[in-house]
């Protein structure tokens, strides 16, 4: 079923991570990524892993969701690992077979890259698990608002994104409905050649386009009726506030980053 | 024989996520041939989910479903042919129209069944007549028509497949009273002419009471009862407790009963109520004060 696709994959909850200001969450996620790529030793990586696990544990998101977010990128992980394994040719040779040469350095980078990517994906998906897409676009708008000074239409872009996000589930539902309706009339979308299958999409796409245009028009009208005229002077129903949770999170993250820097300086690995 | 039979059918949405919801819970019913069944229940009571099973669009999470005596999910290759036995008209069916002309749109279903052109032509013309579309409309684009006409084209598109059972999900929603009467009228005519099974999902007790021979009441994913209108409206108190309204006329007669005028029979259509009243009034002073 199309409905099973989770877009934004928001996981409702009331953990400290959920309650954080989405702006802070976004910035900390970026800091986390920097931290991951900064650490040059195994101990540094360990700190990164620890941070990821702690954040996940605090958020109360089931750990199996971690696996779920990793599943789509397994091929990329394997590909990266193989690439590093085979093409890093410096360091002591561990194993050689004809032109294939696996070096210690290669294993080292491969493990590093894999751990980094895994942590990166888990950490960033935690962001999308605990902040709804709308919260995120709001946060992006607020964070980018200084760019308004140089005439970047930040609000308009954010609004476009919000609307697009808002209508993804609606469109999915609509597609689902139209698909069911055409299937009920005997439309066969699963069998036949590529051309036949492409043709079978016409009965779905045409009604979908028609209703999207209708919906866009209705939305524009509704927005105009409420005197929408862009971001100028607009206030918000949900004000973003940074609270004690945010300061705590910032402190913890700073401590972890500090630890990574210290490890980088003192431990050579 | 039962056209549609379910055995402990259940359906769960979003299994394994926090959004898990039992939409249909242990439903076992038998719908006989030639019946005109009204399906009522609240929004979210599982009526739409249930009827989507009858057409094989949803696969039951557990339980069995038999269409015309054949188990629906036993053999996947038989799914399509069985599916043609049950025609399903969705809510707001006019949004599924896509062809250049109404004729082609009505012909879409029969064409998918692999019928001959002559047969398709006969079916399109016959159903167009049945739903009251004039021949010149058939050559028009469905997007030029009025809302009520569009809906009739969409319903005709399913009727043209000549299913053994026709299921309509709120065919009158969003129409004005005149449009409602027209649609309900044509469904009734179709039922009388074809003697097929028809299921009608509706919010309106009045409509269901007036047209249907059996009523299926759904309440929080379960079947509350499946019975004749008399027996269903006999439980009007329970229906009202569930937040479902009984027909206005039933309320009037219930009130009269409470005031001491017991007619001894359940009234659920205006016609019957009037007959009863007239009989009582002309028959003299039998009323118990």
Structural features, described:
The complex is a heterodimer of chains A (269) and B (289). Chain A has helices spanning 16-19, 22-38, 42-59, 64-70, 74-87, 104-130, 133-144, 154-184, 194-200, 202-225, 244-266; strands spanning 93-97, 100-103. Chain A has 269 residues and is mainly alpha-helical. Chain A folds into two domains: 2-143 and 241-266, no CATH class; 159-225, no CATH class. In chain A, strand 1 and strand 2 form a beta hairpin. Chain A starts with 15 loop residues before the first helix and ends with a helix. Mean pLDDT of chain A is 85; it is low at 1-6. Chain B is α/β, with parallel strands linked by helices and 289 residues long. Chain B folds into two domains: 2-243, 3-Layer(aba) Sandwich (Rossmann fold), CATH 3.40.50.300; 247-284, no CATH class. Helix content of chain B is 40%, strand content 21%. Chain B has twelve helices and eleven strands. Chain B starts with a strand and ends in a 6-residue tail after the last helix. The model of chain B has no long low-confidence stretch (mean pLDDT 87).
Helix percentage range of chain B: 40-55%
| CATH fold title of the largest domain in chain B | Rossmann fold
Quaternary organisation: heterodimer
Lateral strand order in the biggest sheet of chain B: 7-8-9-4-10-11
pLDDT average of chain B, as an integer? 87
CATH superfamily of the largest domain in chain B: P-loop containing nucleotide triphosphate hydrolases
End-to-end Cα distance of chain B, whole Å, is 47 Å
Alpha-beta classification of chain B? alpha/beta
- Give the integer mean of the pLDDT values of chain A: 85
- CATH A-level architecture of the largest domain in chain B: 3-Layer(aba) Sandwich
Low-confidence stretches of chain B: none
The rounded distance between the terminal residues' Cα atoms of chain A is 49 Å
What class would the helix/strand composition of chain A place it in?
mainly alpha
Largest sheet of chain B: 6 strands, mixed
Task: Tell me the strand percentage band of chain B.
Answer: 15-25%
What is the count of structural domains of chain B?
Answer: 2
Strand neighbour order, sheet with most strands of chain A: 1-2
